[in-house]
Here is the input.
Amino acid sequence: MIVVTGATGGLGGAIVEHLLRCLPAERIGVSVRDETRARHFADRGVRVRRGSYEDPAALRDSFAGAEQVLLVSGNDPTADIVALHRDAIEAAVDAGVQRIVYTGQQAAVPGNPYPPSRIHIDTEAALAESGLTWTVLRNGAYGPLDQVLGPWSRTGEIALPADGPVPYTDRADVAEATAVILAGDRRIDGPVTLAAPTALTLGDIAAIASELTGRTIERVVVDDERWVADQITAGLPEPAARFMLTWYRAAREGHFAETTPLLSELLGREPRGVAERLVEQTAG
Here is the structure.
């Protein structure tokens, strides 16, 4: 049995859908905070049990009988995420799980100024100490491009802080590849980067958008402090704006520049590129 945590979220839910295409439903379980939100899986034969990182006893029950657990990283900014991840890992050990697959972040390495990197570094250390077989998927940035780029199609500008090359990755491709890892015969141990095969700057994306639209889409580099001030004016709390700024800092320091062919290999095809995703965005 494979148990997926966070199965009512965007990534976890998509992974379960892909697993259902290649495995019998009775081999799939989900661990969720609210069982009523997973009724659509239960109706298709998936084992649904309540479990949250704040409740290790419930987690042990939701993990019972599982050979593998997919541990989707927590994202509550007010919680001690590393402690919660450690509790989840211990619950998996206690439940007799053999392998944990963890959804991490690309460039989770010392020196990365993006704060979540520290969470993933510490979680990887906890996995290494667990005695279990483990895989960490250091996923490339898979946020929707409209959130990343802002209202470029209306303004004709991608106006953001200085950046660097990033392999912008489609979440649907990450979900499909994760299901392949969970359900397949290929053994992947330790940390691996799961990201699009090409790293692009925002300038590169502006050029792609210009070609697609037949308009000139300008890449406007906004001074860091000016950008923070603009975000505050737009209603974003200053701590949140400065948190987001660290991602641009990490990008321009080259932390997200690495690409690998692994995602393509797992999918058996080329992942969806930025151009295809921009076409979809403008059509919508």
The two ends are 38 Å apart (CA to CA).
